[in-house]
Amino acid sequence: MKIYHKAQITEVTGLTDDALAAVEAGFAALGRGEVTMPPVLSMNISESNGEVDVKTAHIRGQERFALKISSGFFDNPKLGLPSLNGLMILFSAKTGVVDSVLFDEGYLTDIRTALAGAIAAKHLSRPDSGSVAVIGAGLQAELQVAALGLVRPIREVHVFARNRERMLAYQDTMAHQYGLPVTLHQSAAAACARADIVVTTTPASSPVLHWADLRPGTHVTAMGSDNGHKNELEPAILANADALVVDRRSQSETIGELHHFPGPFTKPVFELGQVIAEGLGLRTAPEQITVCDLSGTGVQDTAIANYTAARLGG
């Protein structure tokens, strides 16, 4: 059994074209029915504003599968600690023996989450999308935009968050690390007014984005709703979108945005893996509004863990 720590992992895995291709291939395998993936095991620790999720999946033909344990404690920044933490354990798909342990402290979850957002935009947003609006100003607000740069010519960023100090820190980070100008806004509607892509990156329990906030041609990626009590999108966004995509429908109905839709959802819902595997072109006109709800899947974890282990020499 091999043990790797975050410093080793960050040297070999990041927001790169190769890593994006590995996660995209995992989604495609899911779309082809080549993945065994049980429901998420989730536990809330309400007195600490925390949660713990366990995710796993096996991709047929791959020699290893990952079991990921991820914690999110959202008051941690007040203590000078990161909100997310965790590790991934890789097992042999032939013998069940532990192959390696990746003590990534949540890093690989952050990376695969950002890459999934980029993959969604690659298949759903307009190819010329250059302006992105981000709701929230945490780490995923940074990484989602950075990953978008792999698939779209991002030129400017608009941000809205409830904490102005965090917005200012975000503006500084994006300028110095990525060379991207960031405009601060006092509402989500203002941030979306010139956006081609909108990304919601919050742990909100009530909608932070409304249908009236979106202009024609916008693509929306919602990645914050990954627990039954979280909800970022007004139901009207799901109902009115020209195309609605999720990473896993059953998961979206239990912990994602579909979970909060009042009554049965009767419009077509596509899974991202299906869109990739079948080459579905869901955006058929520039003015259409597309939406992707990402609640985070075990196949992403197995894909990024296998990619990382291989680059570490495993």
UniProtKB/TrEMBL annotation:
GO terms for cellular component: cytoplasm. InterPro entries: NAD(P)-bd_dom_sf, ODC_Mu_crystall, ODC_N. Pfam families: OCD_Mu_crystall (PF02423). It comes from the Bacteria. NCBIfam families: PRK08291.1. This is Ethanolamine utilization protein EutC. It comes from Zobellella denitrificans.
